[in-house]
Design goal:
This protein is an alpha/beta fold. The chain has helices spanning about 50-70, 90-95, 100-110, 130-140, 160-165, 180-190, 210-220, 235-245, 260-265, 285-290, 310-320, 340-365, 370-390, 395-410, 415-420, and strands at about 5-10, 25-35, 35-45, 120-125, 150-155, 170-175, 195-200, 205, 225-230, 255-260, 280-285, 325-335. Strands 4, 5, 6, 7, 8, 9, 10, 11 and 12 form a nine-stranded mixed beta sheet that branches. Helix 12 packs antiparallel against helix 13, helix 12 runs parallel beside helix 14 (about 395-410) and helix 13 (about 370-390) packs antiparallel against helix 14 (about 395-410). The longest helix is centred in the last third of the chain and has 26 residues, at about 340-365.
């Protein structure tokens, strides 16, 4: 998509006749059926506005996809394939022939009323005051109030303290030792409920976020959860590049199960655990941390770069656990708005990805992790370079350079033997509450 700005629009297809756009600005349209996200489509100005018949056709197609993904009699739940996409079990034509499709979709889209009182929400933050204020504001207006919200301030000076005073119902914890994994572990250890949900300080959550997480853990026998991450805005070329060229945080709108079969299928090439979701929208049963340990403090922002979330999913799947991706639970992420910020982010992502592959190889001996570092990633770089030369959008070569820099920086971890011998901390014993604002 060669444009520097897309308006992010939301259309409820249950009432599409009243929602047709009137202008022709490039737009990423998020389609819903009431509170259920159905899909997204990026369109240039000459493709807009959508007509009523086109919207009705989209509604039928999205309804069919939801029907096959959520109806037990039609093959649900869907299992994730090699690339983390749903494995089709039902022909689209068959789904479209189903009776009472609108009524079925209305039933599927009914919002959760499950209590979220058994959920601890953990928000880790570092020097992002205005963004944190928006994030906490969205958590304060949840349709089902969580048992608690714990804000872990990872800035040395405790800069988030004053913002948290505006939300006296939330708990404030100061963790001055740098590192997102360190902060998340502090959140786990100081939280009090059986389900621990994580989001980031550059995110605003949907009003039904906590209730949908609660419903997922009640209805499904899973130990880990991830949800849908949508862009909040696409006002700059850098934000558009992250969303469309780099893939954003994924765009699957049907639930998927990531289980032992997915792990074994992808293990020879480095299990594709990053396909499970994003740390900005994830949750775990407390028993996960008791069984396999906490976040690896060598990984994540402030340490190796990122991938502390996917490394934990790797350990969980290797131990026989199951992860559920459920897009009913929605958050809106504010992407980096400038090129320099995006390049730093992409470099950190790639560096952390390589570091996580090294730790996974050390713990499990899976050679697929080394194959990905030494073969798959260089092949990806070569293909991306050729594509960027001939048809890449503006800025793609700069982003690719940042990826390669991150990969090179990550190779150092292969030679840091002291670093490689360290292991994730075990246990979730509750520590003394630190710096709580009342």
């Amino acid at each position: 998509m060669r444009t520097e700005r897309f308006e992010v629009r939301h259309i409820d297809l249950a009432d599409a006749d009243n929602d047709i756009e009137t202008d022709r600005e490039p737009a990423l349209t998020i389609f819903w059926w009431r509170d259920l996200p159905l899909g997204a489509r990026a369109s240039l100005g000459d493709e807009l506005p959508y007509g009523t018949s086109q919207l009705r056709q989209l509604a039928a197609e999205y309804a069919a996809a939801q029907l096959q993904a959520r109806s037990i009699g039609l093959g649900a739940p869907l299992r994730a394939t090699y690339e983390g996409q749903p494995k089709p079990v039902l022909l689209l034509e068959t789904a479209l022939e189903a009776q009472n499709l609108v009524e079925v979709l209305d039933a599927i889209a009914a919002p959760s009323s499950t209590s979220a009182q058994n959920i601890s929400v953990v928000v880790c933050t570092r020097d992002r005051g205005p963004a944190l204020s928006k994030c906490l504001g969205s958590l304060a207006t949840q349709s089902c109030t969580p048992g608690e919200v714990v804000v872990v301030d990872n800035s040395p000076a405790g800069n988030a303290r004053e913002i948290c005073r505006q939300f006296p119902e939330f708990r404030y914890v100061h963790e001055p030792h740098t590192g997102l994994s360190r902060a998340r572990n502090t959140g786990v250890q100081t939280s009090r409920f059986d389900i621990i949900a994580f989001t980031d300080d550059d995110v605003e959550v949907h009003p039904g976020w906590t209730s949908e997480i609660a419903r997922a853990f009640v209805e499904r026998d899973v130990e880990a959860f991830s949800g849908l991450v949508l862009p909040a805005r696409l006002d700059t070329a850098a934000q558009c590049s992250f969303q469309f060229t780099m893939g954003g945080f994924g765009s699957t709108f049907v639930p998927l199960t990531f289980d032992g079969r997915f792990f074994e299928e992808t293990r020879p090439s480095g299990a594709h655990v990053w396909k499970i979701g994003a740390g900005a929208n994830m949750a775990f049963r407390r028993s996960v941390f008791e069984r396999i340990g906490l976040f690896d403090e060598r990984l994540g922002a402030g340490a190796a770069g990122c991938s502390e979330d996917s490394e934990l999913w790797y350990r969980l799947l290797a131990a026989g656990g199951t992860c559920l991706y459920e897009p009913r639970a929605v958050v809106f992420h504010h992407h980096r708005s400038d090129w320099s910020g995006l390049r730093r982010q992409i470099k950190a992502y790639m560096k952390g990805h390589v570091a996580a592959l090294v730790t996974q190889y050390d713990k499990f001996g899976d050679r697929g992790n080394i194959v990905r570092i030494g073969k798959q990633l260089p092949v990806y770089f070569a293909k991306a370079f050729v594509k960027a030369l001939f048809e890449g959008p503006p800025g793609r070569l700069g982003i690719l350079a940042a990826e390669i820099q991150g990969w090179l920086a990550g190779l150092q971890f292969l030679l840091r033997f002291g670093w490689r011998r360290r292991r994730p901390p075990m246990g979730t014993a509750v520590t003394a509450e630190k710096g709580i604002v009342r």
